[in-house]
Design brief:
Elements lengths: L4 H7 L9 H14 L2 E4 L7 E4 L2 H9 L4 E2 L9 H13 L13 H10 L4 H24 L3 E3 H6 L2 H10 L6 H12 L12 H24 L5 H6 L2 E2 L2 E2 L2 H32 L1 H9 L4 H12 L4 E6 L3 E3 L2 E3 L4 E5 H4 L34 H15 L3 E6 L4 E2 L8 E3 L1 E6 L1
Parallel strand pairs: 2-10
Antiparallel strand pairs: 1-2, 3-7, 4-14, 5-6, 7-10, 8-9, 11-14, 12-13
Helix pairs in contact: 1-2, 6-8, 6-16, 8-12, 9-10, 9-12, 10-12, 12-14, 12-16, 14-16
Length: about 425
């Protein structure tokens, strides 16, 4: 059945759309073609403008003084929007760098920036390679058949980023469960419950854990990112408890869930395109390009929201002060005006101007680390890989924010 433009717009507010790639990209292609700046009115959501063209997403990102992250940084139901507004007023809400605008954003982002600069990444790379080898070895131990998404891909980046934070391995499984509950609040397999109270409880569990961590690092500073966050000062004062916990949350969650989605989705793409797998194995020097193509192909972050601080004309449409726009990254990354044959998975794609990491002042803090992790894993796997095929039906997470494959059953031989 052919979608109408209004139906295509409402698909962006339906978590199940992101678990059905064909349906999602049909909707996005229609919006790019017929209504690239389209007003969406979906049940249970406050209205928003869907921005689906690469050039327009870039324009909004560049105009960060006009299009603000606050008060609606991600797409939530109207009920959650109101709850978040109330909690912000009370000073007890999640407030990560994703939620902030300048000048707060610039100052708070700088606290962790040094830990993701090139020198720090070079220092971390041996640990990343060691963990990549551990998880390819794990594939061998699993005996030639596994659910790659659940048994391998989700754990490797988790260990990397939580090692960077300095958390004990005994807490890693707990962090994984909390992350899946946070980002999978619309998915039956992951969510703790269906109510806003259930979602709030997940956040409170995060805050309680990280409040204890902050107290420990302030008593006894250590050489890790958690200590840098706990002991940071802005105008001579430490971050308050909620801003400190929020910083941990964004590093501990976005820092691994997005990368695990890319690794699982990247492997799936190679299985589905065996010619590209053979090409990459024959020319391993293509790996940096292949990594970016995997990131474009998967686009783990589905959207961010911005709210107009004043009236603004975008592609002939006037967005009024106070109205919100949804930046659709999967759509921008399939834009026919920018990508040659955008539905072709091409490990040698060059140039590759994908927007999976965002753009401008909100460009992903951990982009370099994500690239290192994906590259390290596939550089370890591919030389050891004999055969590989699907052994069941892959499944994706129902979400409107961050997600990818939650199941990838495979059969393989790895030396």
């Amino acid at each position: 059945m052919t979608l109408t433009v209004d139906e295509a717009g409402r698909a962006l507010a339906d978590p199940k759309s992101y678990a059905d790639e064909r349906r999602l990209h049909e909707a996005l292609a229609l919006l790019r073609r017929e209504a690239p700046v389209h007003r969406v009115e979906a049940p249970d959501y406050n209205p928003f403008w869907a921005v689906t063209r690469h050039a327009d997403v870039l324009e909004v990102e560049r105009e960060h003084g006009v299009f603000l992250s606050a008060p609606r940084p991600i797409l939530s139901t109207a009920e959650m929007d109101e709850m978040n507004r109330q909690r912000q007023e009370q000073g007890i809400a999640l407030r990560t760098i994703v939620h902030m605008d300048d000048p707060d954003h610039r100052v708070v982002r700088a606290i962790g920036a040094d830990w993701f600069r090139p020198r720090a990444m070079r220092d971390l790379e041996p640990r990343v390679k060691e963990l990549a080898r551990r998880y390819v070895d794990r594939m061998v131990e699993l005996g030639g058949e596994c659910d790659f998404a659940r048994q391998v891909a989700v754990h490797f980046p988790l260990y990397v980023v939580l090692s960077l934070l300095g958390l004990p391995e005994s807490d890693f499984d707990r962090m994984l469960k909390l992350t899946q509950e946070l980002f999978g609040g619309d998915d039956d397999d992951y969510r703790r419950g269906a109510t806003k109270e259930d979602k709030l409880e997940v956040l409170m569990d995060f805050f309680a854990y990280f409040q204890r961590l902050t107290e420990a690092r302030r008593r006894t500073p250590t050489d890790d990112l958690a200590s840098a966050i706990a002991n940071a000062r802005i105008d001579g004062e430490p971050l308050n408890d909620f801003d400190t916990a929020s910083y941990y949350v964004i590093i501990a969650t976005a820092g691994h869930d997005t990368t695990s989605a890319t690794i699982a989705g990247g492997l799936h793409a190679l299985i589905e395109h065996p010619g590209q797998l053979d090409r990459l194995r024959a020319k391993p020097e293509l790996m940096p390009l292949a990594v970016d193509e995997m990131i474009r192909w998967v686009t783990p972050v589905k959207e961010f929201m911005r709210t107009a601080a004043r009236d603004y004309d975008l592609r002939g449409v006037t967005i009024r002060e106070g109205e919100s726009v949804l930046l659709s990254y999967p759509s921008a990354n399939r834009d026919e005006d920018v990508f040659d044959d955008p539905y072709r998975f091409d490990v040698g794609r060059d140039p590759n101007k994908h927007l999976a990491f965002g753009f401008g002042v909100h460009y992903c803090l951990g982009a370099a680390l994500a690239r290192i992790e994906v590259r390290a894993f596939f550089e370890e796997l591919l030389p050891r890989l004999g055969s590989i095929e699907l052994s069941g039906v892959p499944e994706s997470t129902a979400t409107t924010f961050v997600g990818g494959l939650k199941r990838l059953p495979i059969r393989y031989s790895v030396a």
